[in-house]
Design brief:
214 residues; mainly alpha; 11 helices
Length: 214
């Protein structure tokens, strides 16, 4: 496989994976609808930054520890499960409090986290960095698209950058799609529903990670 063919094949595969519904898209959509487009974009950038972190880890070979060390994998898995469960409970509890607020002004997440866009960037980044399944994906997926004779480190980083760029474009599209519906999405009942749905998704992913066995 030539470098050009490898890049095209990876871009197509990564694009399909990017648009597949999952936890990342749920987080960005919920944030765009309830917190605004800017914070949603920062959450999306954080998610993509997490992909770059795992891409770099895989490129340098450190991610192989997750394949051979059960302790390392389980430690990261449990941390991710607790973090996702924490976010899910916060969203569910915030949706309940929002329902009791006549103005719907109570936020679903702690004020400190929603005060600036940096908090959303960190939240998005942590959802990927703490997920060992993302690491395993990079360790096993990227090598399939590295052509013979290519610089493994540089080509792996390039593939990770392509995946991150596709993610940025997809999240920007999701945020743009919510703009025409901004007035409807800002209704307290709709925001409560989004909080509960996204919270349930996060808890489900957290429980799945916690109960998973290699």
């Amino acid at each position: 496989m030539t470098p050009t063919a490898a890049l095209l094949a990876f871009t197509l595969a990564a694009a399909i994976l990017t648009v597949t519904p999952g936890m990342d898209s749920a987080l960005v959509l919920r944030t765009a609808a309830v917190e605004g487009g800017r914070r949603a974009l920062m959450a999306g950038l954080g998610i993509c930054a997490g992909c770059l972190v795992w891409g770099a880890v895989a490129a340098f070979g450190l991610g192989s520890l997750l394949l051979v060390s059960t302790v390392a994998y389980d430690a990261l898995r449990i941390c991710a499960a607790f973090y996702l469960f924490y976010l899910g409970v916060k969203l569910l509890w915030g949706g309940r409090r929002r329902g009791k607020s006549s103005a719907g002004a109570v936020q679903a997440l702690p004020p400190a986290a929603t005060a600036n866009a940096a908090g959303w960037f960190v939240r998005g980044c942590l959802t990927n960095v703490l997920n060992p399944k993302v690491g395993i994906f990079y360790i096993t997926f990227l090598p399939q698209f590295i052509p013979a004779g290519a610089d493994v480190l540089r080509f792996s980083l390039l593939l990770a950058a392509i995946h991150a760029l596709l993610g940025v474009l997809w999240f920007a599209l999701l945020v743009a799609a919510t703009r025409p519906l901004a007035r409807w999405l800002s209704r307290p009942a709709v925001m409560r529903g989004l909080d509960r749905m996204t919270g349930a998704v996060f808890i489900a992913f957290g429980l799945k990670l916690a109960l998973e066995r290699r």
